[in-house]
Design goal:
Layout (H helix, E strand, L loop, with lengths): L12 H9 L4 H25 L1 H5 L2 H6 L11 H15 L7 H18 L10 H21 L6 H6 L1 H17 L1 H4 L6 H5 L1 H24 L5 H18 L1 H13 L1
Helix pairs in contact: 1-2, 1-7, 2-5, 2-6, 2-7, 6-7, 7-9, 9-12, 12-13
Length: 255
């Protein structure tokens, strides 16, 4: 139900990046990592909980056991108990920083609104903005605040980069699942089409590079860090959609 393999290599590092920027020491980093692993786990459990009927129609997810609730291996009451425990662990952040815990609580609310009511994940374009906030912008700012940092306009500007990465993560997911989603749910990609979804992904990546260059010019991001970050901002969407680009190329050649 936690689907740890889907997020452990990326999402927990966003709040840690904010904490490092605020000068957090190892014990605080460990606490922030625990808090956000619980929060991200909550996000995936609540998503499974509300997507159970959709996932029952998704043969690939059933075979991979992506949603044990859909396959009957987990009960609804068990999933509810898991969500309560994970949310409780995340809110232990109040003992680290009351200001930071407010952002953690806001993050939990946004996650719940995304998958449950008002189910923002089925509202085109708002789904992408919400995903960018709940897995990018808010975790970065929460990590920064939990480490004792004071959020300034400059820090808000820096948070635009993880926000855009969070947006890109959902666009990638939507264009990759386009064939399945078009008959079962409503997303930005199913409304604008897969090709336009790829264009939107490219525009988001280009905007993140522009913001990085602007931050570097204002010396908010050191030059030594800007180069590898820039490479990552280009490589992440290209690598994630490499199979789809190859398929589209073959399709165009056949036509």
């Amino acid at each position: 139900m936690l689907r740890v393999g889907d997020w452990i290599r990326f999402y927990p590092f966003v709040p840690l990046a904010g904490a490092v920027l605020a000068g957090a020491e190892a014990p605080v980093l460990l606490v922030i990592w625990i808090v956000y692993c619980a929060l991200i786990g909550f996000a995936f459990v609540i998503n499974n909980y509300y997507d159970v009927e959709i996932d029952r129609k998704h043969k690939g997810k059933l075979e991979a056991n992506k949603n044990p609730l859909a396959s009957g291996r987990v009960s609804r009451s068990g999933a509810q108990a898991m969500m309560l425990i994970l949310a409780g662990i995340a809110m232990l952040s109040i003992f680290v920083s009351p200001a930071g815990s407010v952002l953690v609580f806001a993050n939990l609310l946004l996650v719940a609104a995304y998958s449950g009511g008002p189910r923002l994940k089925e509202r085109p374009f708002l789904d992408i903005v919400t995903h960018g906030l709940m897995f990018g912008g808010l975790p970065f700012l929460a990590g920064f605040a939990l480490a004792g940092g004071r959020i300034s306009p400059e820090i808000l500007a820096v948070s635009a980069i993880p926000f855009l990465l969070g947006c890109e993560a959902l666009i990638i997911h939507q264009v990759m699942d386009y064939e399945t989603d078009i008959s079962s749910t409503r997303t930005t990609a199913t409304i604008i089409g897969r090709e336009r979804g790829l264009v939107l992904l490219g525009a988001s990546a280009a905007l993140s590079l522009v913001i990085l260059l602007a931050l570097t010019a204002q010396e908010l991001v050191p030059v030594w860090a800007a180069a590898p970050v820039g490479v990552y901002l280009l490589a992440y969407p290209a690598y994630s959609c490499r199979g789809m680009f190859r398929d589209l190329s073959h399709s165009a050649s056949a036509q």
